[in-house]
Amino acid sequence: MTIDSTALEDDLVVAFNELADTLPQRSLPLAALHPRPRRASRRRARVLVAAAVGITAVAVAAFGVTRLLDVDDAGRTHRPSVAAQQPTEPSPSTRSAPSGASGAEVPLQPASTTDSDNLTRAILRRDPNANPIVVQIPDRAPVTVYSDGSQRCMTIAAAPIPAAGDQGSCVSVDQASQRIIGAIDTGPVETPTSVTYGVWTNVPEGTDYVTFTYGDQTAWQRPVAGISYFTVPGSRPSLGSEPVVLRAFDATGRQLGQATATPYLDGAGSWRWQ
Amino acid sequence: VGCDEQATESGPIMAIPAPTSFEDFYRSRLDWARRLAFVLTRDDRCCDDIAQDAFVGLQSRFDDLENPSAYLRVTIVNACRRHLRRESRRQDSYRQLASMPSGLSTSAQEILDLVDRLPARQRAVLVLRYFEGLSEDEIARTLGCRPGTVKSLAARALQRLREETNQ
Questions:
Q1: Which chain A residue's Cα is nearest to B112?
Q2: Contact (Cβ atoms closer than 8 angstroms) between residue A145 and residue A153
Q3: Cβ neighbours of A36 in B, within 8 Å
């Protein structure tokens, strides 16, 4: 380098090293290595995705019909116990479609893959009270939902091919019952392989099924361990500022709650969700 | 020619024994990674996050990389540049943070305050040269640009520091 050795350069060496020496020593365990979801309020549009929501025709076609006839009365919306690492509910809906639901079922089930197990162990080593739950829609990435202090968080970091974009987000506990949070799996190329994930981490207790509405798109799902999520192809809202709405109903068709996410274009020209 | 942000395996071979596992590598390089992120950003709130994110990104590729340290450095530098760009939009809060008492000597505090005012790329060049001790070619590989660009960035950064110091 042709920068001459001068007093200024010597001062820079001293200053940088002095600065580095002020950094407190900290031992960050290897177990803590997992992507930290950002706060939902700061995430880019696609993240929240709630917008997201949607369904993939393949998943619906493959599983929707088979769910229409069978019956299973096990509760699916318990709040998971602190000790639970995986939901104990049986796999997705084997009951007939609720009378109040429209569209096809997007089946949700507990999941356990090598990657998700590793991620779960890492989360638990960092925080034994995180209570990670892994659920999955067939042919989509497993979604891990866990607690982080006063927040509820989701991540798709256990996807077979890690997303190139943001992989998760969090929402404060007091908003978790009304907010959809999410992430986008950009895959190897953002378009057209991107998939947006919208997650309701705190579906009300007693919920029998959750409906998804995005414009004229509708679908429904039996939540697992108080979690419901939908996906939609793409990383941007296809309906502009149309909100995504998830509604929770009990077995009698009474609405127990709803969560939303509304996309908007910020001043910088990026889509965001609120 | 600008400096891109693609992580590559550019950079020198570290003068440390090559770790045989990712865990060994993590243990041996964590402190270095944190310090580099801290000096680049001067933000002790985010340097741990940047370092850990860099290791996360490296983990799945570790076995395929001949020089994971260089890859890690590129990742950290890019993350810090992004962080600085974000922070530059919050000038007031950042200046306030940077002016907080830090336990530094007066001369170090003064020169670091001047460095803080430099564009992120110029700051990165100075840190890589005077903290990391990299050569011009090594910095160019780390930043993904030509050596001539590094030379120009360094010259402009030093010139600006001299001007500020003389004022």
A1: A15
A2: yes
A3: 49, 52-53
- Closest chain B residue to A24 measured between Cα atoms? B44
Six token digits for residue B10: 């550019």
Q: What angle in degrees, to the nearest 10, is found between the helix axes of B147-166 and B136-143?
A: 100
How far apart CA A6 and CA B159 sit, in angstroms, is 12
Please give the Cα distance from B147 to B1 (Å, whole number): 10
Are B107 and B67 contacting, i.e. CB atoms less than 8 angstroms apart?
no
User: What ipTM is given for this predicted complex?
Assistant: 0.83
Residue identified by tokens 């290897």 is A30
Q: How far apart (Å, rounded) are the C-alpha atoms in residues A81 and A89?
A: 12
> What tens digit of pLDDT does each residue of B103-146 get?
788 888 889 989 988 888 899 999 999 998 988 888 998 888 88
How does DSSP assign B40-101, residue by residue? HH--TTTHHHHHHHHHHHHHTTGGG-S-HHHHHHHHHHHHHHHHHHHHHTTHHHHHHHHTS-
**0.80 surpassed by pTM:** no
- Residue pair A168/A156 in contact (Cβ under 8 Å)? The answer is yes
Pull the structure tokens for residue B35.
């310090």
Listed range (A38-47, A66-75, A227-236) with the worst mean pLDDT:
A66-75
Nearest-Cα distance to chain B for A83, in Å, is 27
List the 49-78 stretch of B: residues with Cβ below 8 A of A: 49, 51-53, 55-56, 59-60
Neighbours of A51 (CB within 10 A): 32
Letter for the amino acid at A43?
R
Closest chain B CA to residue A20: B35
Any chain A CB within 8 A of the CB of B106? no
